[in-house]
Design a protein that fits this description.
Alkaline Phosphatase, subunit A, eight-stranded mixed beta sheet, five-stranded mixed beta sheet, 23 strands
Length: about 500
């Protein structure tokens, strides 16, 4: 097998597997993602690893899971993203993105090792504009609910300002990014003998804001202002946070965003077809995680276990010399990194956790891993073997827990600009990551400490066990059955193999 020397990765944020036509969805239209699937291998047993957004990108670009050591954060001093190695091989690397978290505190160093990058402005929390466009009346941005004030002042949230500057559909961040991708391929793909084009597209992530004709495509009867900001809530309808009708509308707006970005993704496929780029390019479509839209009455990404809606994600890979089909082997997001490492013959210098998928897509192997692990720092840890999924919560008070980092930053909260991790204190000491000789600050936490946003208030002793093949909706919790002991031992084995901190075994009751 002669491996291609060109690769495109398109990451669509919050892409729900069960809503794609090629994965059996029929609620929303995704003709271009389905079109891509007809020339790709579709992975049916692909799962998240580190969560949420930036940790998932860390899995893909660095290849080392970090959720057992630290929360949402940067690429660390001892780590090298694949782009670092490719630049030193003389391989062109290009990033196109409208993802604001890549360019703010907690997202340091993800883009810096690309040879070139372009940030398409205006999405979600991107601080792009300081005021509304005074002439915006009549533009595609339709009346919609506001994100609210920030900074405890009268300042509007970034997107409330940005959306007033969109003059047409092509000005929305998602369409801009997809058009930039098509343009880059048209003008540059043939000029480079080898390249990695990484497209980090924030759609269909909220805000679920689209212009006509998309905005009412799936809910034409709605006659109030659009709800483009979904709640992050458990029991959203039952507790009265939203009505069932509002939930239906929010779900429809996600579908509109999905169909709009699918349409613009089609422009990328058009260039690939017209210039016959498929003959020498490996093309990956993936996501970081899904998004709850009423499944189990859960909305957004609140503090719940990684149920199938969020954690069972789509992955499609097209490559020269393969036909479309399905791959049922168990895979996870760090395997995308390992695939690129294999493709470009990279020698990495640190512990990684991925397995190359090339043997699967070229039918040289039927499986690459026996288990997949994932989770959120300070929260649940899940393990699955392709048939069963076990979600283990912290026990006791959720501690001991330490953050290992030399950069000490995490996701900012726009509405609470003063909320930051406290500085390391006198409890901190130097330790070493697995197989690393670089000292790292290790900060122990205890109950009452301010933790990173996604790590706050874990639900203790809340364990879940499902036979996923028989119960894909996870309606029956089998905790207490003999199978739990087997999965506990598998989790222990996985943590040992990853050289996880000893405190993780304690806090998980292992």
């Amino acid at each position: 097998m002669k491996k291609p020397r060109k690769a495109v990765v398109v990451l669509l944020d919050s892409l729900n597997r069960h809503m794609l036509g090629s994965y059996g969805g029929n609620e929303f239209e995704t003709p271009n993602l389905d079109r891509f699937a007809k020339r790709a291998m579709s992975f049916t047993n692909h799962y998240t690893g580190s969560l949420p957004c930036m940790p998932a990108r860390h899995d893909i670009l660095v290849g080392a899971m970090d959720f057992l050591w630290r929360p949402w954060g940067c690429i660390e001093l001892w780590e090298r993203p694949i782009t670092y190695h490719l630049r030193r091989q003389g391989i062109t690397t290009m990033l196109l993105s409208d993802h604001p978290h890549l360019f703010e505190t907690g997202g340091e160093n993800y883009h810096t090792d690309f040879l070139a990058w372009d940030y398409l402005r205006g999405h979600e929390s991107d601080p792009w504009k300081t005021r509304e466009d005074p002439s915006w009346v009549g533009t595609p941005a339709l009346p919609a609910g506001s994100r609210g004030k920030i900074d405890g002042s009268d300042n509007k949230a970034p997107y409330d300002l940005s959306r007033t500057w969109f003059r047409e559909e092509a000005d929305f961040p998602g369409p801009k990014t997809m058009q930039a991708t098509a343009d880059w391929l048209q003008h540059n793909a043939a000029a480079h003998d080898s390249f990695l084009l990484f497209v980090d597209e924030f759609d269909p992530h909220e805000p679920f804001d689209t212009p006509a004709p998309w905005n009412r495509k799936y809910d034409p009867e709605w006659d109030d202002e659009l709800i483009i900001w979904p709640p992050y809530a458990i029991g959203g309808v039952e507790r009265g946070i939203i009505s069932a009708r509002e939930g239906q509308h929010i779900r429809a707006n996600y579908g509109a965003k999905l169909s709009m970005i699918d349409h613009w993704f089609g422009k990328v496929l058009d260039v690939m077809d017209r210039d016959n780029l498929w003959q020498d390019t490996l093309f990956i479509v993936c996501t970081d995680h899904g998004h709850y839209l009423g499944e189990k009455d859960i909305w957004g990404k609140p503090g719940v276990p990684q149920y199938e809606t969020l954690g069972h994600t789509p992955l499609m890979i097209a490559a020269p010399g393969i036909e479309c089909g399905e791959i049922h082997a168990l895979t996870t997001n760090v395997d995308i990194n390992a695939t690129l490492v294999d493709l470009f013959d990279v020698e990495i210098e640190y512990v990684s956790h991925g397995e190359s998928l090339l043997p699967l897509i070229y039918k040289q192997a039927s499986s690459v891993r026996e288990w997949a692990i994932g989770g959120v720092f300070g929260q649940w840890v899940q393990i699955q073997d392709g048939k069963n999924k076990y979600i283990r919560a912290p026990v006791g008070d959720g501690f001991p827990l330490s953050m290992w980092s030399n950069r000490w930053s995490t996701m900012p909260i726009s509405g609470l600009p003063g909320l930051r991790l406290p500085n390391p204190d006198k409890r901190a000491y130097l330790d070493f990551m697995p197989d690393s000789e670089i000292p790292v600050i290790r900060q122990p936490f205890r109950q009452g400490d301010l933790l990173a946003f996604w790590s706050l208030n874990p639900r203790l002793n809340d364990h879940h066990l499902s036979k996923i093949r028989d119960d894909p909706d996870e309606n029956e919790n089998r905790v207490g059955e003999p199978l739990e002991k087997e999965m506990l031992e598998l989790l222990r084995h996985a943590l040992e193999e990853m050289q996880a901190p000893a405190e993780q075994f304690t806090r998980l009751g292992l």
